[in-house]
């Protein structure tokens, strides 16, 4: 009895659905990604084997390097409120346009009296050497203390959360400069803060 030959057909996989899913995922990640703000003060942080991600929300970063201190607080709404409180404290009036522009600025380091000029600059000019001398933090004009205090108030009011603080210091920075910043925090009863370091893989034994 002759064998019945089964007609072979080519196998075709419809990839349309998979391509649609890939396109949707790509769109999602693009829309939800947060662009990293350029930093006006580049620092080389010390190495550490301890891994802990710096909080994205309800957090402020104090960057210390070259004897200067820079400040950054998370969230555009919190930045706007912080600027409003600082303006009221120092008698500096910021326009609505300046407030919106400031809400998009990350780390900065100028006295409050020079902040209007910094806000008016484009991002490239803000990053130029010598433009930002750091936030005053000495005993005669401790503006850093005011920035931290007002940012804490703004975070509590906007997000109903306590603001956490991270210190990002250069590995070669002198200890007295770092201690002065810690003293500012302790005067506000802030005794817990994160130290930003470079993650270093543990060596295999």
UniProtKB/TrEMBL annotation:
Keyword match Coiled coil: no
Superkingdom: Bacteria
Pfam families given in the database record: ExbD
Chief site of localization: membrane
InterPro entries: ExbD
GO cellular component: plasma membrane
GO MF annotations, alphabetized: transmembrane transporter activity
UniProt keyword Cell inner membrane present: no
Signal peptide span: none
Membrane protein topology class: Single-pass membrane protein; Single-pass type II membrane protein
Location(s) in or outside the cell: Cell membrane
Keywords: Cell membrane, Membrane, Protein transport, Transmembrane, Transmembrane helix, Transport
GO process annotations (BP): protein transport
Family: Belongs to the ExbD/TolR family.
Protein name per Swiss-Prot or TrEMBL: Biopolymer transporter ExbD
Native source species: Pedobacter sp. KACC 23697
């Amino acid at each position: 009895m002759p064998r019945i030959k089964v007609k072979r057909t080519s196998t075709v996989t419809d990839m349309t659905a998979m391509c649609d899913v890939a396109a949707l995922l790509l769109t999602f990640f693009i829309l939800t990604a947060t662009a990293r703000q350029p930093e006006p003060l580049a620092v080389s942080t010390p190495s550490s084997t301890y891994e802990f991600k710096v909080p994205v929300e309800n957090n402020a970063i104090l960057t210390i390097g070259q004897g200067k201190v820079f400040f950054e607080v998370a969230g555009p709404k919190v930045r706007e409120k912080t600027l409003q409180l600082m303006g009221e404290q120092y008698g500096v009036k910021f326009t609505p346009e300046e407030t919106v522009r400031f809400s998009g600025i990350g780390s900065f380091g100028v006295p409050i009296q020079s902040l209007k000029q910094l806000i008016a600059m484009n991002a490239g000019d803000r990053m130029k050497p010598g433009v930002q001398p750091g936030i005053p933090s000495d005993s005669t004009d401790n503006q850093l203390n005011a920035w931290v205090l007002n940012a804490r108030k703004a975070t509590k009011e906007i997000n109903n959360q306590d603001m956490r603080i991270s210190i990002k210091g250069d590995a070669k920075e002198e200890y007295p400069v770092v201690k002065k910043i810690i003293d500012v925090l302790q005067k506000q009863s802030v005794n817990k803060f994160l130290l930003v370091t470079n993650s270093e893989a543990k060596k295999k034994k």
